[in-house]
Design a protein that fits this description.
Number of domains: 2
Helix content: under 10%
Structural class: mainly beta
Strand content: over 45%
Distance between the termini: 18 Å
Length: 519
């Protein structure tokens, strides 16, 4: 027994809502870019969001980056980069939010060409919003009464979550083209993905290390003899993201926000491609700590009524990160005589399964390929688009986590190659998978206690235990033992079937029972 807590504060994770919004833009290509004759692919990515809390709501803003790959009026492969934005707001569920986070992803992208330089792009975006609130439980009514109260407290481990964002990391790299002049190498489009190999807190922040997978789509040669090809580079990186709190854990993913590729002569008959990259790191870190909460209440000298509230407390268990080799092919697109040029792969939402300690991520990936059909007799060379789905299956060892663990999944295609296998297309590449493991604990917290009636004389001889809120998995026997009360009387008082008195430790004895009257 201990004195009643005046206030109980615990950082508690609460899953918010799923928000749907759109980014809509009408764009006009500038005159220095070639006209669009055939649109082959649109690659869209979301940059990290900014957020503002005020006036009872949380507002999120972000940017979209669209890379258009198309064949121009000369039949060459060209590209254009267009920028848009999106925003959405969610109401705050209480005044005590201390953190709010949103994970946004692209659902689909549609377009409409209204001219050789005019295009409209509509991006559907899905955002999962999560809150971390500072729960306050006040027992003032009980403290200010004329009666004597004692309470039973419970303890649980919760995670205080903090958003981590670092948006200005610069890296550079170069690649040498031997025996090629700078004017013979034409960068068409470039992009990069980030694979986080290591992410751990230290004294001055969060140490992050991994690889940047850079892709350059370029043309080499002149005129009709220009050959389109793809260059892949892996650039190692490491950095420390400053953070003012000492964290127990951190889970961070990286994203390339800007990439510039330029070609320069070396004066010796060769040229060099220079890559200038800007990265953003975004994720969350936290501190696991134990908190106590008011679970049950004894009242001496009066009959009382109690109010309770159920909270979801989440504890972070850890994260698993690994990259996997994936491959798939299409049997529906005859590609006889074509040459594989480039491919973009999108990992669709995955389903997680758990069996024998293994965690399996199962789903599909969508490949969007560009093919080049060479000139034949009177026909000119042309570029065509092909699209196909292929299954992916990845497996991680999750034996270190409890069976009640819940997982959040982040998967991204890092890079790979497109090739022609017979008359079918085939893509081989690697996918980075990150799983964050959380364990949920439902706790019932007493929020208010007040006496029933004011007749002190009539209640002087009474000592009543108001109500108990059993934990998940408790049995009738464990509740009776904890409060040292008669088992049969406890079952009768709470209308629990007599058959459970003979086997009071059966888990089903109080299944679905949220509260038990003790006396």
């Amino acid at each position: 027994m201990e004195t009643i807590l005046d206030d109980l504060r615990a950082a508690v994770y609460q899953k918010g809502e799923t928000v749907f919004c759109e980014s809509v833009g009408e764009y006009t290509l500038p005159d220095y870019l070639p006209e669009i004759r055939k649109l082959l692919r649109i690659e869209t990515k979301l940059l990290p969001t900014g957020q503002f809390m005020g006036n009872g709501k949380a507002e999120f803003t972000g940017s979209t980056v669209h890379t258009l790959l198309y064949s121009d009026e000369n039949g060459k492969l060209s590209s254009a980069v267009l920028n848009g934005d999106y925003r959405f707001a969610v109401p705050l569920t209480a005044e005590n939010e201390i953190q709010i986070m949103a994970e946004s992803r692209i659902d689909r992208v549609s377009h409409r060409l209204s001219g050789p330089r005019r295009i409209g792009i509509r991006t559907a975006i899905v955002s999962d919003v999560r809150f971390v609130v500072d729960e306050c439980v006040s027992m003032a009514q009980a403290e200010n009464s004329d009666y004597s109260y004692e309470n039973l407290t419970g303890r649980c481990t919760v995670s205080d979550l903090y958003r981590i964002v670092c948006e200005d990391l610069h890296y550079s790299d170069s690649y040498r083209f031997d025996a090629a002049r700078a004017d013979a190498v034409r960068p068409i489009a470039s992009d990069a993905s980030v694979f986080m190999k290591d992410c751990r807190p230290q004294a001055d922040g969060v140490y992050c290390a991994g690889e940047i997978w850079v892709k350059l789509l370029y043309g080499i040669g002149e005129g009709e003899n220009e050959l389109t090809d793809v260059l892949w580079r892996k650039i190692p990186f490491d950095t420390v993201v400053p953070f003012e709190k000492a964290l127990d854990y951190a889970v961070i993913n990286g994203k390339c926000t800007a990439l510039d590729a330029s070609v320069s002569d070396d004066g010796l008959g060769s040229c060099e491609v220079l890559f200038d990259l800007q990265l953003a790191l975004e994720g969350e870190g936290g501190v696991n700590r134990e908190v106590s909460f008011v679970k049950d209440m004894y009242a001496h000298g009066a009959a009382c009524r109690a109010e309770a509230r159920e909270l979801s407390a989440f504890r972070f268990l850890g994260a698993l990160t690994q990259n996997f080799s994936v491959s798939g092919s299409s049997a529906e697109n005859p590609v006889a005589g074509a040459r594989a040029v480039d491919c973009a792969v999108t990992v669709l939402p995955l389903t997680l399964e758990r069996e024998d300690g293994k965690i399996r991520a199962i789903g599909e990936a969508k490949a969007e390929a560009i093919l080049l059909y060479p000139a034949f007799e009177a026909e000119s060379a042309r570029y065509e688009r092909a699209e196909f789905l292929f299954p992916i299956r990845m497996e991680l060892d999750g034996k270190q986590f409890s069976e009640n663990a819940q997982y959040r999944c982040h998967a991204e295609f890092l890079g790979g190659q497109l090739r022609i296998d017979g008359e079918n297309l085939r893509v081989d590449g690697e996918v980075a998978l990150t799983l964050s493991a959380l364990e949920e604990e439902k706790i019932s917290v007493l929020t208010a206690v007040e006496p029933i009636g004011t007749d002190t004389a009539a209640n002087e001889s009474r000592e009543c235990i108001i109500v108990a809120y059993p934990d998940s998995g408790e049995t009738l026997w464990s509740v009776a033992k904890r409060y040292q009360t008669d088992l049969a009387a406890l079952a009768t008082r709470n209308r629990i079937p007599e058959r459970f008195i003979g086997e009071p430790d059966a888990p089903s004895s109080i299944d679905g029972v949220t509260s038990i009257i003790i006396a």
